[in-house]
Amino acid sequence: MNLLGYYVPVPLSRQQVYRRRRVTIFTGIVVVLSAGFYLPMTLLAPLPPVAADTVSYSAPAGTAAAPAVPSYGASGIAAVGMPGLLASSGTGEALPIASISKVITTLVVLDAKPLAAGSDGATIAFTSADVQIYNDYLADNGSVKPVYSGLELTQREVIDLTLVASANNYAQSLVNWAFGSEKDYVEAATAWLAANGMTSTTVEDSTGMSPDNTSTPADLVLLGQLAVADPIVSQIVATQSVTVPDVGALSNTNKLLGIDGIDGIKTGTLDEAGACLLFSADVLVGDETITLVGVILGGPNHDTLDDGVRSLLSSVVSGFQQVQLTAAGQQFGTYNTQWGGSTDLVTTEAASTVLWSDTPITTTVDAASIAADPAGQDVGSVTFSIGSEQISVPLELDSEISDPGPWWRLTHPGSLF
User: Fold this and answer.
1) What 8-state DSSP symbol labels residue 401?
2) d(CA 370, CA 352)
3) 35 phi and psi angles, rounded to 5 deg
4) Interval 90-112 mean pLDDT
5) Residue where a domain terminates, one of 318, 342, 371
6) pLDDT tens-digit map of 267-299
7) CB–CB of 103/232 below 8 Å?
8) Which CATH number characterizes residue 401's domain?
9) Interhelix angle 182-195/168-179, nearest 10 degrees
10) pTM for this one?
11) What's the rounded Cα separation, in Å, for the pair 203 and 103?
């Protein structure tokens, strides 16, 4: 301070000047370095992911079916591709199956002697032994078709006689040709049944004339599914009539062919078995075709049995319904980001299914966490579980989640790190 009372700054020493300059420069460097670090980190840092908030969804519910199972014998019916029986009645014990046995016979022979596509198979020559087989079954009042020594037929023609005309003599001649004897056939059939899961089925001959050929509805439905899956057998059992050279015209013993969608499979008649029918039908539910396979054993006669088959089939068909699981663009969740972005989680396509009775439907939504994503981005799926069936539909974003921009990034570092 001078004499007049004014403050007069004391000149800094050279050392002090240097020190202040160093502090200023260092501070500037720190600021520059901090900005060079902070700005890229915040502007380029990945955005925090956000999970979807899923919405509640009520799956379609079906009405319990009331299948019209017969009061006599034993029965069962199933849909191909669906587990177990849709309906059943009667005893669970194995019952005589009569000529349904010939379906087993045919499948076992084809397993050992398959027919190439478009081929009628080997030529089978008939001898006096086959004539004796004819005479034996004729004496037992069995179903037979004419044969003579020197007759030659293809394997396919003999199968036609076995399945369409239900000729006992040709069924036995077929297995004698394929296996050498009926005893050897029985051994092969027993092994085939076990390998295909029909553990409640027993065969003692190739024709079903033996009441010891027995099975359960569950096993026979499985047999029917194997029959309709075989292109040769399924074609033959759906044939209403066929002509075999030197034998004549054959009419199918199944009088329900062509009625109510029925396209097979095999009748059976025996005193100990009653009237029997293993049947299949293709029915339309909505725009989907369902293949049904069923059986009724122990009918009092074939007229009553046929009425029972039609009633059972009709009641089961009415127990199916086609339901829509989801529409395209249906919302299953929402994403709400920290920077105010929002988009819905929607299905990319519609989905429907054929529902049997009151089978429950459960829904599971699987959605990934997102940050900034374009519209239409697949981010998960919704899965509908219907019994053992699962139907998955992709989920996408119905609008874009855009980047929040530099200002939000610079002012919300805590959300980024």
Assistant:
1) B
2) 29
3) -65, -40
4) 97
5) 318
6) 999 999 999 999 999 999 999 999 999 999 999
7) no
8) 2.60.410.10
9) 80
10) 0.84
11) 12
In a domain, 259, yes or no: yes
Distances (CA, A) of 182 to 96, 149, 263, 340: 19, 20, 30, 81
Name 86's Cβ contacts closer than 8 Å, sequence gap at least 6: 65, 67, 77, 78, 79, 316, 319, 356, 357
Check which CATH number belongs to the domain holding 129 and give it.
3.40.710.10
**Which is more confidently placed, 25 or 47?**
47
Checking if the pLDDT of 23 tops 50, the result is no
Tokens of 256: 């329900």
Backbone angles phi, psi at 56, to 5 degrees: -70, 145
Which element (helix H / strand E) includes 183? helix 182-195
Are residues 387 and 83 in contact, defined by beta-carbon separation less than 8 angstroms? Answer: yes
Considering the chain, what percentage of its residues have pLDDT values greater than 90? 77
Instruction: Quote the CA–CA distance of 291 and 309 in Å, as a whole number.
Output: 15
- Closest to 162 (Cα-Cα) out of 145, 180, 141: 145
Given this model, what pLDDT does residue 7 score? 55
- 318, 347, 381 — which closes off a domain? 318
